[in-house]
Amino acid sequence: MAMNAIHRALAPLLLLALLLGLGGCSAIDVLNAITPASDYRRLQNIPFDAGDLRLDVYRPAHARQAPVVVFLYGGSWEVKRTYTKDEYKFIGEALAARGYVVLIPDYRLYPNVRYPAFIEDNAKAVVWTHAHAGDYGGDADKLVLLGHSAGAYNAAMLTLNPSYLQQAGGERSWIKAMIGLAGPYDFLPLTDPLLDEIFAPARPLESSQPINYVDGRNPPMLLMAGENDDIVFVKNTNNLYAKIKALNGPVEKVVYPKMSHIKIIITTATRLQGQSDVMAHIVDFIQRKVGTGVAAQ
């Protein structure tokens, strides 16, 4: 029995080590393969605009008046470096298991589009969510944005710059909370030729940076990052947090001394939550800002 208990305790650590060693798409494939499929319903490929953009909904069993989380995935805003909504079953399940209605939209990427089209697509997804959350047991007045990496950038731009949602027919006030994991919010000067091309339409270039839209009137924001992140440096989180605080805006920050760019997202998965408290912080923040849903009988 003791040996079996040791094996059970070591299993998540070994899985985490495997996933971190694989990295990228291979790690996510493994994670999705072991993601539970019970206690929620996944509705796939629902169109949310006049084009071909679609989203998936993860609806918990018996959801009623539940908080609604729109998850925006990352990947450098570029087709070759980005997954799709289908790769994020693990986080849809993990959040649905906590009682949240989760929507994961796809959005257009370079070279098909450049800045700011991907933000505009995400704005359309939020407007659709606000209109249809109740159809899936969610409460549109408990709408939360959650993003990782480039997705955290997109979420921050929607939260800090009211114009994107307004142009899509929505309001920034619909966003009751925003959570950013390892987001790039203040990344000038550009040193990557690919980013030069993606953000070329921005005039001036400073207009592409979330930090430059801080006005102190933003919805509550939780910014999380790792000091070991060598893809999106932690200064992005620290700088945005400091700017919002300086203008007396509602913001919280969690910086992990030892956390990589991929670990901060994969440890939200149900089978890996014991390896970090990322999901615990997410859940605590959502509960404090929008409360919980009511379980239907």
Structural notes for this entry:
- The protein has helices at residues 2-22, 24-33, 89-96, 117-132, 150-160, 163-167, 193-198, 235-246, 263-266, 278-290, and strands spanning 40-47, 54-60, 66-72, 101-105, 138-148, 175-181, 221-226, 251-256.
- It is an alpha/beta fold and 297 residues long.
- It has a single domain, classed as Rossmann fold (3-Layer(aba) Sandwich), CATH 3.40.50.1820.
- The chain has an eight-stranded mixed beta sheet, with helices on both faces.
- Helix 3 (89-96) links the parallel strand 3 (66-72) and strand 4.
Ordered list of secondary-structure elements with their pairings:
Layout lengths: L1 H21 L1 H10 L6 E8 L6 E7 L5 E7 L16 H8 L4 E5 L11 H16 L5 E11 L1 H11 L2 H5 L7 E7 L11 H6 L22 E6 L8 H12 L4 E6 L6 H4 L11 H13 L7
Parallel strand pairs: 3-4, 3-5, 5-6, 6-7, 7-8
Antiparallel strand pairs: 1-2, 2-4
Based on the coordinates given, report the CATH architecture.
3-Layer(aba) Sandwich
Give the overall form.
Answer: globular
What is the CATH class designation? Alpha Beta
Please identify the structural class as seen in this structure.
Answer: alpha/beta
* CATH fold label: Rossmann fold
> In percent terms, what proportion of residues is strand?
15-25%
The count of DSSP E runs of length 2 or more, i.e. the number of strands, is 8
Q: Largest sheet at a glance?
A: 8 strands, mixed
Count of individual domains: 1
Count of helix runs: 10
Radius of gyration: 18 Å
Instruction: List unreliable stretches of 5+ residues.
Output: 1-11
Q: Percentage of helical residues?
A: 25-40%
Rounded mean pLDDT is 90
Corresponding CATH superfamily: Alpha/Beta hydrolase fold, catalytic domain
SSE pattern, N- to C-terminal = HHEEEHEHEHHEHEHEHH
CA distance, first residue to last residue:
39 Å
Q: Enumerate the strands of the largest sheet in spatial order, edge to edge or round the barrel.
A: 1-2-4-3-5-6-7-8
